Amino acid sequence: TPPATSSSLPPYFMKGSIIQLANGELKKVEDLKTEDFIQSAEVSSDLKIDSSTVERIEGSQNPSFAIIQFAVGEHRAQVSVEVLVEYPFFVFGQGWSSCCPEQTTQLFNLPCIKLSVGDVCISLTLKNLK
Amino acid sequence: NVEPRSVPVFHWHSLVPFLAPSQSE
């Protein structure tokens, strides 16, 4: 399966962006905590949080991109995504992390640290995906 | 008078990647 590709940078990672949680609370993107995602998913009827462990990070043919391989969920299903190196993922208990945190911070002003193999990222799946 | 400008509000799940393993069964 070819990796999923995200070629554009969404605006909501910009520092100061207002994010609405599932309970209606508004928070700035840089203030989000692990619990915010977990609690939002708990009240969602169709989405659930999965733990996605970074298993491998490699360069893409295009140097602007990286290919990240995750082990998703309790069955550790292998999923690869190709993303811009500055694309941030939220790591459990740690916060925003990307392959190139300097670029993420430069582009979005978003505090960000280096995404590493072994990091456990927050991801979503459908509750009824079986 | 200054008109208040609407600030975009994004939904929380937009920020989380949807990593669904392909279901073959």
Strand content of chain B: 5-15%
Structural class of chain B: mainly beta
What's the main sheet of chain A like? 5 strands, mixed
Q: Give the integer mean of the pLDDT values of chain B.
A: 80
User: What characteristic shape of chain A results from the CA principal axes?
Assistant: globular
Multimer state: heterodimer
Report the average pLDDT across residues of chain A. Answer: 92
Order of helices and strands of chain A: EEEHEEEEEHEE
How far apart the termini of chain B lie comes to: 62 Å
- SS content category of chain A: mainly beta
The backbone outline of chain B, from C-alpha atoms, is rod-shaped
Q: What is the gyration radius of chain B calculated from CA atoms?
A: 18 Å
Biggest sheet details of chain B: none
Which stretches of chain B are low in confidence, meaning pLDDT under 50 for 5 or more residues running? none
Give a verbal description of the structure.
The complex is a heterodimer of chains A (130) and B (25). By secondary structure, chain A is mainly β. Chain A contains two helices and ten strands. The model of chain A has no long low-confidence stretch (mean pLDDT 92). Chain B has one strand at 9-11. Chain B is rod-shaped. The chains are: A mainly beta (130), B mainly beta (25). At the A-B interface, strand 2, helix 1, strand 4, strand 6 and strand 10 of A face strand 1 of B. Strand 2 (18-20) of chain A pairs parallel with strand 1 (9-11) of chain B, so a sheet runs across the interface.
Ordered list of secondary-structure elements with their pairings:
The complex is a heterodimer of chains A (130) and B (25).
Chain A lengths: L3 E3 L11 E3 L5 E3 L5 H9 L4 E13 L5 E8 L4 E8 L4 E3 L3 E4 L2 H8 L4 E2 L5 E7 L4
Parallel strand pairs in A: 1-6, 8-9
Antiparallel strand pairs in A: 2-3, 4-5, 4-10, 5-6, 7-8
Chain B lengths: L8 E3 L14
